[in-house]
Amino acid sequence: MTAPKTLYDKIWDAHVAHEQEDGTCLLYIDRHLVHEVTSPQAFEGLRMAGRKVRAPEKTIAVPDHNVPTTLDRVSGVIANEESRIQVEALDKNAKEFGVNYYPVSDIRQGIVHIVGPEQGWTLPGMTVVCGDSHTATHGAFGALAHGIGTSEVEHVLATQTLIQKKSKNMKVEITGKLKPGVTAKDITLAVIGETGTAGGTGYVIEYCGEAIRDLSMEGRMTVCNMAIEGGARAGLIAPDEVTFEYVKGRPHAPKGAQWEAALNWWKTLYTDEGAHFDKVVTLKGEEIEPVVTWGTSPEDVLPISAVVPAPESFKGGKVDAAKRAIEYMGLEVGQKLTDIQIDTVFIGSCTNGRIEDLRAAAEILKGKKIKDGMRAMVVPGSGLVRAQAEEEGLADIFKEAGFEWRLAGCSMCLAMNPDQLAEGERCASTSNRNFEGRQGYKGRTHLVSPAMAAAAAITGHLTDVRELM
Amino acid sequence: MEKFEKLTGIAAPMPLVNIDTDMIIPKVFLKTIKRSGLGVNLFDEMRYDRQGNENPDFVLNKPQYRDTQILVAGDNFGCGSSREHAPWAIADFGIKCVISTSFADIFYNNCFKNGILPIVMPQEVVDVLMKDAEKGSNARMVVDLEAQTVTTSDGESFPFEVDAFKKHCLLEGLDDIGLTMNNVKDIDAFEGKMAQERPWV
User: Fold this and answer.
1) CATH, residue A444
2) Do B28 and A416 touch (CB under 8 A)?
3) Which of B68, B70, B132, B173 satisfies CB 3.0 to 4.6 Å to B12 for a cystine?
4) A72: Cβ–Cβ under 8 A, 6 or more apart, which residues?
5) Alpha helix (H) ranges present in A53-202?
6) Chain B interface mutation, best of A59, A81, A129, A150, highest count of B Cβ atoms under 10 Å
7) What contacts A134, CB < 8 A, 6 or more positions away?
8) Which residues form the Aconitase/3-isopropylmalate dehydratase large subunit alpha/beta/alpha domain (chain A) (predicted)?
9) How close A436 comes to chain B (CA, Å)?
10) Are residues A205 and A134 in the same domain?
């Protein structure tokens, strides 16, 4: 009998194309997602070496980081010259190397991590990489998915493999049921609050437990998306009926007999009884509160009912880091988090730019107006999410509440396009990073769920969404 | 890739924990389609004011640290995005080695692709090296990859661990794609097998 395996072990074993004596492997890559920021140097490298893309049919490119999200972008002109050059370079490279491509003008365009699942490129048991750390998102399907640098992008383009050594296994179990008003975003932030941003370093996390099983695919993607903020190489959730239901019928999902064959294999993708995990973290679902971040690291997370912590309550280098964060964020020790005034709200990103996220925010906003002077925007994760939200009437709710209703892209999550915070502006954001300057020079970010972002837009300060439910 | 053998150089102290890739190279500099020229913008928001004037308090702006080749940093260095622009900027500045208690995974891997040696040391050793780095330009630290040691200006030596294959590639300056191409038959065979077993991929 073979030893019991984790889900990670199984996917890993199914993709080793070559193994050296020291355990260094060539891991075969099933899907390679490409965007405009981390790929130009890789394509240039191929060109200089006279190499081709080994598997263009497994390579999917879409511009997302730089693209404007304002309605005037349909004119096809990107005003910022450097951004325009980068997007044009992707247009050119996609054509020249013959990879699958969704240009800005295509309704299927959007954030790469939303487009991949939406089009059925991401399937259970696959290996998925992209020159973007939030590739972890695809782990929600039980796919081994992680971010890579540009040298590795070039390596995958040329060889369809990565040189890898296996990570350790970590289990994160969320038991029980979530309370009303608590979402996948709160789970994933709460886990990072528990483990710290380096707690997952060297590990692949498998999320499990009743609260995870109860999540939709959208929610599972939100959880896995931020595995990287916990330092993990990847996050995984074993595929189940929810997964299969989501995948079935998508443009690039298998059909007919191939669907049946795929399903048979996918159903074997779970962690065996008694398999070994190197680290286990357990949280009780019913104890998770709606959370917000107060500082400049995703680990600076607290329940909305808490106060800004004293730096001295931390240990080691974190004391100085917390001091710096409180100063940067313009906060007072002991200040109630609900007293923090907000001037900007951003709903979108690969963390929370899917249809369910927009539904959750619209639910809170229905029939209400945002606070006077508030700048609020919704940036759907893809053109198709946008279209669906319009069909469901969500767009009207946002617009009537006072939100801007934008076109798809990464937008203010990383502020490479014109959607940025000005110096000192403070944003309740559904994105994934609250680093210094992340959303704009000296901008201040509080990470929250879509429902919490909607609540803050209405009241003008960080708010416990349960008071508005 | 340039070979990494033995490095004797100035080490700069950056004790801040969680130095993320947005700090190392802010996104405005990611719009380039080249790999070179990013050194001038390394740590841009800490290093300059909005008008582009140097912040005299920032460590790499101090006269004694302008030729820094080794960085001794706080926990979890390089966390955040996968941008290889971070190690490109570090290498372009002239830094060839970063020492910390821990590194973010993607950043750690990216370093090796660019001739940079990231070294993980326990807290108590990082504390000693941080103190040594605070001495400035008179203090030269020695990083010997072959021997896997870091030696302070006082001659105190500490061993470190590094993956044998990564070490080999760095010492020889090997190109990953070239190495993998030596095993192209295995990749062909794997694809052949998968076409049978998992044709939907």
Assistant:
1) 3.30.499.10
2) yes
3) B68
4) none
5) 81-97, 112-118, 150-159, 184-195
6) A150
7) A113, A147, A225, A228, A350, A351, A432
8) 9-460
9) 7
10) no
